[in-house]
C-alpha cells in the first residue's frame, strides 16, 4: 500500500472492542514513532502519558464525556488513552515563537499527534484524537502539575467500525499555487 492509500484508509474511530487489549509491543512502537516526530528547533515540547490500567482508564474516559451534550461516550471502550501534555520549548524555539508570534509547541503537539494516529493505523489499530475533556480532572487523575496544559487525549484500540468514505473539501477550495487564491485553482 502506498502512503496516499494508507492515509486514505485511516479514520477517526469511535467504536472499539472493549474486550480486546492492545499489545504492549504495539504501544511501544507507536510511542517510538511519536518520539521521532519533528519539532521546531528540536524542542520536543511534549510528555506522553499512557493510560491502560482499566480502572484509571475508565476515570480518564469519564473526564472526556459530556452527558448533557452526548459527547465522547465511546472513549470508555478504548483500552488505551495517550494524553499529550505540553512541556517547555527550548530557548531557540521559544525566542523564535516570541519573535514570530507563533506557538510552536502547539504546532509540535499536532505533529506528534499525527505520528501517533498514523503509527496506530500501521499497527492495525483504530484511534481518535479527543480535545474535549475536563482538563482539571485529567490533571487530578494523572498527577499532572497545574502549570501544565493537557492538549489532547488520543484513544487507541481495535476498531469495530468499517472504513467510511472521507468527506473533504475539493482541492480548488483549499489549494492555490504561487499566491493566495481562495476557491480558484491556479498553477
Number of helices: 7
* Chain-averaged pLDDT: 93
- How is the biggest beta sheet arranged? 4 strands, antiparallel
Strand content: 5-15%
Distance between the termini: 29 Å
Helical coverage, percent range: 25-40%
Give the overall form. Answer: globular
Strand order of the largest sheet: 1-2-4-3
- Helix/strand-derived category reads alpha+beta
- Please mark out the parts with pLDDT under 50 across 5 or more consecutive residues, or reply none: none
Note the run of SSEs as H and E.
Answer: HHEHEHHEHEH
Radius of gyration, in angstroms, nearest whole number = 18 Å
- The tally of beta strands, per DSSP, is 4
Task: Explain the layout of strands and helices.
Elements lengths: L2 H7 L14 H12 L10 E6 L2 H11 L15 E7 L4 H10 L3 H19 L3 E5 L4 H8 L7 E8 L13 H4 L13
Antiparallel strand pairs: 1-2, 2-4, 3-4
Helix pairs in contact: 2-5, 3-6
Amino acid at each position: 500500500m502506498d502512503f496516499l492509500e494508507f492515509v486514505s484508509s485511516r479514520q477517526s474511530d469511535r467504536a472499539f472492542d472493549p474486550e480486546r487489549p492492545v499489545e504492549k509491543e504495539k504501544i511501544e512502537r507507536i510511542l517510538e514513532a511519536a518520539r521521532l516526530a519533528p519539532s521546531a528547533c528540536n524542542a520536543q515540547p511534549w510528555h506522553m502519558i499512557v493510560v491502560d490500567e482499566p480502572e484509571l482508564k475508565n476515570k480518564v474516559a469519564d473526564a472526556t464525556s459530556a452527558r448533557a451534550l452526548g459527547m465522547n461516550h465511546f472513549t470508555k471502550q478504548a483500552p488505551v488513552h495517550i494524553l499529550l501534555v505540553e512541556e517547555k520549548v527550548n530557548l531557540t524555539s521559544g525566542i523564535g515563537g516570541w519573535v514570530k508570534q507563533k506557538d510552536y509547541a502547539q504546532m509540535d503537539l499536532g505533529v506528534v499527534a499525527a505520528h501517533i494516529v498514523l503509527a496506530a493505523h500501521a499497527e492495525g489499530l483504530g484511534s481518535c484524537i479527543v480535545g474535549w475533556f475536563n482538563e482539571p480532572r485529567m490533571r487530578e487523575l494523572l498527577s499532572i502539575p497545574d502549570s501544565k496544559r493537557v492538549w489532547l487525549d488520543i484513544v487507541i484500540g481495535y476498531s469495530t467500525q468499517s472504513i467510511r468514505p472521507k468527506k473533504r473539501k475539493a482541492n480548488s477550495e483549499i489549494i492555490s499555487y504561487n499566491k493566495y487564491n481562495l476557491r480558484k485553482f491556479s498553477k
